[in-house]
Write a structure and sequence with these properties.
Structural class: alpha/beta
Largest sheet: 9 strands, mixed
Pfam family, one: Erythro_esteras
Number of strands: 11
Number of domains: 2
Strand content: 5-15%
Mean pLDDT: 90
Protein name: Erythromycin esterase family protein
InterPro entries: Emycin_Estase, Hydrolase/PRTase-associated, UCP036794_erythomycin
């Protein structure tokens, strides 16, 4: 990584939406704009991504936002922002449907504000130009099978419904517990792959006839793909033959590609995911472990001018996270960034929010490997000095970087301790 040509960064003060002009200029005519985050629970990461997305939609005609979320839950947001029949008019009711931990990633006031803005924007668009909101992730095995059951009832397709029943019966002994399924497959070498693959094949054959609502065919086929790849993902958890991370990120890119095809040859997409997914893995220590990610794969599959990767980071503040998987969410203090890290360097130089654009001229600061903070849904601030940093060549991992010196926790719907502090613009926009 360190022998790559050095790159120059241009730095711009970041105070308002108008200060994003240099980023819009850098994006140009790109069709893939991937927006990261250094945690899954920071208010400013959501609101700045929303500002960027709003401008791309209004000024550049972007087609949809795709996020690091489950397809069934995010499709409910898609139905809401496009005002599909039965979608309702209360975004809070839609977001309360997010039940998989960590619920706060999408069931929060920041997303409520964005969804309301998207719905108002779409009111003035013809059907083919309404901006969508979709989930890219692979986790929702059981939920996707349930959705398929409902779709096939509406379509009155008993033949395919029987295939869904076979899938349900195959998974039923594991009680919707992915780990139990993965352990059983590892021990018995028997899986439900045949059943989910047969279901996908049949749905793909018939999906074009599903017409009970707009995008019914897309919804059915995407849920079937989730079922197939989720089964493979969970099986890999206890297998040495496949890398579960690579299965997950490859699924997300495949889903993104299908969405682009669905939206036509002029489609443009905005992706919201953690930096670990959208920042090119080849310029981190992930590459040494044989791991790929969304940013790397999209760069490899598309023309260079068609892809812009935008990373995010901050020096200190607060964040929503859990202390272990499945733990209650809480607002935690994020201590000052570790000495020698990207964030500590930027803070020392100038403790203000700013936008960095990398343009290919020599710049020693960001052309060599430095630690770059990454906070997940599980976080323990007391371990800050021992973990939470990814060795990164910043100017190669991203095309641009938003540095936010002081940040604060996200506003989950069901965390009452800070629900009184609404994000800017709620409920009228972002």
């Amino acid at each position: 990584m360190t022998d790559q040509p050095q790159t120059q960064s241009q730095s711009f003060r970041l105070r308002s939406e108008a200060d994003l002009d240099p980023l819009l200029e850098r994006i140009g005519e790109a069709r893939y704009v991937l927006l990261g985050e250094a945690s899954h629970g920071t208010h400013e990461y959501y609101t700045w991504r929303a500002r960027i997305s709003k401008r791309l939609i209004e000024e550049r005609g972007f087609s949809f936002i795709a996020v690091e979320g489950d397809w069934p839950d995010c499709y409910a947001i898609n139905r809401f922002v496009k005002a599909y029949p039965g979608a309702g008019t209360d975004v809070m009711a839609v977001l309360q449907g997010f039940e998989r931990w960590p619920t706060w990633m999408w069931a929060n006031y920041e997303i409520a504000a964005l969804a309301n803005w998207l719905r108002r924007h779409n009111e003035h668009q013809p059907d083919g130009r309404k901006v969508g909101f979709y989930g890219l992730d692979v986790y929702s095995l059981w939920e996707s099978v349930e959705v398929l059951n409902e779709v096939l009832k509406q379509q009155q397709d008993p033949q395919t419904a029987r295939l869904v029943d076979e899938v349900v019966q195959c998974f039923q002994p594991y009680g919707e517990d992915e780990r139990r399924y993965a352990q059983a497959v590892a021990q018995l070498s028997e899986s439900c792959r045949r059943e989910v693959t047969a279901l996908l094949s049949e749905i793909r054959r018939k999906a074009s006839s599903y017409d009970h609502e707009p995008e019914a065919a897309l919804n059915a086929e995407m849920n079937a793909w989730v079922a197939v790849n989720a089964e493979r993902y969970y099986e890999s958890m206890y297998s040495y033959e496949e890398n579960s991370w690579n299965i997950r990120d490859t699924h997300m890119v495949e889903t993104l590609n299908r969405l682009m095809t669905h939206h036509g040859p002029d489609a443009k997409c905005i992706v919201w995911e953690h930096n670990t997914h959208i920042g090119d893995a080849r310029y981190t220590d992930m590459a040494q472990e044989g791991m790929v990610n969304v940013g790397q794969l999209v760069r490899q599959q598309q023309a260079p001018d068609d892809v812009v990767l935008v990373g995010f980071g901050s020096y200190q503040g607060s964040v929503i996270a859990g202390r272990h998987w499945g733990a209650s969410m809480e607002s935690m203090t994020v201590p000052p960034a570790r000495s020698g890290s990207v964030e500590a360097l930027l803070h020392r130089e100038q403790a203000t929010d700013r936008l960095l654009i990398f343009d290919g001229q020599p710049d020693e600061r960001f052309s060599k490997e430095r630690g770059h903070r990454a906070i997940g849904v599980v976080y323990r601030p007391e371990r800050e000095q021992y973990g939470n940093y990814v060795p990164t060549v910043l100017a190669r991992r991203y095309d641009a970087f938003l540095y936010l010196d002081q940040t604060r926790a996200l506003h989950p719907l069901d965390l009452h301790t800070n629900a009184g502090l609404m994000p800017e613009g709620y409920p009228f926009g972002v």
